[in-house]
Amino acid sequence: MNLQTSEGHMVTSTMHGMSVLRSYNTPQKSGALIVALGKEAVFTFSYSGISEDEALALAEKSDWKAIQTAAQAK
Known about the structure:
Mean pLDDT: 94
Radius of gyration: 13 Å
Strand content: over 45%
Structural class: alpha+beta
Number of domains: 1
Number of helices: 2
Shape: globular
Largest sheet: 5 strands, antiparallel
């Protein structure tokens, strides 16, 4: 799903081999990343007051693969 307006966007993509939904509200400078880690696990990162690029850089400091591995071990 990809939806873009002057107010923001919702975009699906693949990052680090995982499906990711990115949403961003331009006027509020806020949004969220939802990363599908598996059938029963997601990593959610929400933010406010920073750009989407800054948020992506912060979210990528988390080890998504390690979180995915831990979720699959349960």
